[in-house]
Write a structure and sequence with these properties.
The complex is a heterodimer. Chain A is mostly beta strands. Chain A has strands at 4-7, 10-14, 19-25, 32-37, 43-49, 55-58, 61-66, 71-76, 85-92, 103-105, 109-114. Chain A has no helices and eleven strands. Chain A is globular. The chains are: A mainly beta, B mainly beta. The interface between A and B is medium-sized, with 23 and 24 residues.
Chain lengths: 115, 113
Amino acid sequence: ELKVEQNPLFLSMQEGKNYTIYCNYSTTSDRLYWYRQDPGKSLESLFVLLSNGAVKQEGRLMASLDTKARLSTLHITAAVHDLSATYFCAALKGDYGGSQGNLIFGKGTKLSVKP
Amino acid sequence: DAGITQSPRYKITETGRQVTLMCHQTWSHSYMFWYRQDLGHGLRLIYYSAAADITDKGEVPDGYVVSRSKTENFPLTLESATRSQTSVYFCASRGPGQGYEQYFGPGTRLTVT
């Protein structure tokens, strides 16, 4: 059974600092997703990582995927207040087609960036 | 408007009542999903649908019913609401590309009293 664990679940950081959120998953999956959720809002897609070694960057956020270690990371560079949100990772379950192409979500990391 | 919409956005109902949450998408995506979001649990899949008239259970289907007579609509019904079904409900659809990316609606906040 595919399980997804994120850590930390809560992260308070100062502006200008760097930090990494970790996403581990328990069984084979070679598609990994990162979403952002602002309070009271929906989930916004940030990154889709399609293969081992994939790295994607958008502004101060960079995501990577190591399928052999079953690990994805979301690295935050020089954090700013606008990055405060909850970040979810999700792994694709099983085969891509049919009933197995569903996402399993981690519990989310609530990030608070303070001046 | 193009995209995925949900209605109502907020709903308060009483224990034992039936309530239906609506989801509509304009992309003609084949796959659609219903999730619930609760503190400490992240998002959990309730039901999903691969196409019109094809639905299947997710992780937490008990107490819920779905139907999909048209590709663009995927309603979720709580046949007899319970307090444990108080949650935020998100509908999503999946794009056709290789990424299998899911796009989420704005959510419905349901309170069962």
